Amino acid sequence: MAKTDLPMIEQRRIEAAIIKPIYEELKAELGEREAQRIVGAAIRKDAIAQGKAYAGSSETSLAGFHALFPQWTANGALEVEIHEESESDLRYDVTRCRYAEMYREMGLAEIGHLLSCGRDGTFCTGYDPRIRLTRTRTIMQGASRCDFHYRWVEDGPESPPGTARDAGRSAPADPAGGSG
Prior knowledge:
The chain is an alpha+beta fold. The chain has helices at residues 8-30, 32-55, 62-67, 69-73, 98-105, 112-117, 119-127; strands spanning 78-85, 89-97, 131-135, 146-152, 164-166.
């Protein structure tokens, strides 16, 4: 996906409307698990491409990454409590997620974690793999809030680039991680 000027919730609404009949057909033909695997793989690839598009040719940083956040929160899409913001750490909780609400209204709750949540860690891979996401819960998967912790890591094998360690997941294993 290329960079967009739309508020991200509007972009995701358009994408979900296109994906829904494709997902339903895949599910009817291949079963829910295989349909989710295919959709998840396609979305992970798209999230990496989108991250690259947003990084462009400029120098990246955690501050630069966070500067993109207003596009994701536009139109009240997310209500957020920020806990820490520094050159190497960004921690916040999402207390209301209109993405999750939208997917439920569209009848896509079973894949909402793929459509939005699963993009979070893989977007980092494309934007700058030195940004790592850790998250333990998401609203999309039933928690009262999503907990995000982005870290800037110069190097080290702690976890693969762009990977989210996401203990609250109920979906099949996703090496990319994700949230709402």
